[in-house]
């Protein structure tokens, strides 16, 4: 009955344990899935950071044209000073060369990376909390498994270590029936020995002097026993045996002689049956102890399962809280990763813009050179016109000075306007 109850309870406990293991695997799956997503997120961060570092390295290697850093008026004025070899131009050339990286605001990148590290630390902390909760879950399941194992195996001998090739262990009813069968066989063998003993007594009584000699020998051997006389008296009460024929006596002696050869075998067989009964009894005792131990273990496990009712919602809540935290952290990390990528794009645009600046500087220099050439040519033409106008004015005055009254054209003797071509900032 106890074994049947144990089997019923064990099936229920195994079902509950399987359910708890499934729940535990579900909780662990939440953590494993988050870790996989976290690794993918870190890979995206590394990719964005690597791209940013490549861009920044390119900025560090790009030296800014010194002419862009000169102070003063316009590029035209600075270029004019350079051509003249002035002190200002030489001081600009002597300045420390700068790279594009010198114009990068490092605090933006530092702040983004610090935020990402903080989010990574926050994930590790929340994952550690989930791992601690999962470890407590595993400890509870391990405790249940160990208790069930202790209740199943009560010994450490070879008989407890069964394999799939061994025959099933006999049940308690089978052990009882086996003991009964061996006891019945022992009874039959003992009965045959008693019959042989009776036949021996009968033969002694029909042997001259044999009965008395046997009685005396038995009395001498059991002289110290108080009941020996009574026992032998029942066997040898009839001092005169019943008469039998010679043929009956010969037949009795032949049977007695034949049975005497089998006495040792019968005794050995009785010992074998006795040993088998002891073995079966040991197995029966072992199974009884196992059943009682299993019952106690199952009661303990049931108590633990009842306690699990209060802790299981905590484990589920911890898993749900971790998932929500990771979702928030992942969103923030993704946003920061996009910020890194945007920063790299911004610096790429900065580098591309500088290339355009260099081309624009060259274009402006070319335009300035062309304008300077045109201005120089125009100045030469204007100077020629001024000189021609001066000569014409002098010739005119020489021609009319004596005949033309001065008050008729007060400005007749004025010099002409001199034109200059010069840059205007």
Would you kindly provide a written description of the structure presented here, covering whatever features stand out?
- Helix content is 78%, strand content 0%.
- It is an all-alpha fold and 425 residues long.
- It folds into three domains: 2-164 and 295-373; 173-286; 375-413.
- Helix 5 (172-205) packs across helix 6 (210-221) and helix 5 packs antiparallel against helix 9 (263-400).
- The radius of gyration is 61 Å and the shape is rod-shaped.
- 10% of the residues are buried.
Describe the largest sheet. none
pLDDT < 50 runs, ≥5 residues: 71-92, 155-159, 228-240
One letter per element, helices H and strands E, the order comes to HHHHHHHHH
Note the overall shape: rod-shaped
Rg over CA atoms, rounded to whole Å, is: 61 Å
Please tally the β strands and state the result.
0
Helical fraction: over 70%
The share of residues in extended strands comes to under 5%
Number of helices: 9
Distance between the termini: 113 Å
Mean pLDDT: 82
Class inferred from helices and paired strands: mainly alpha
Count structural domains: 3
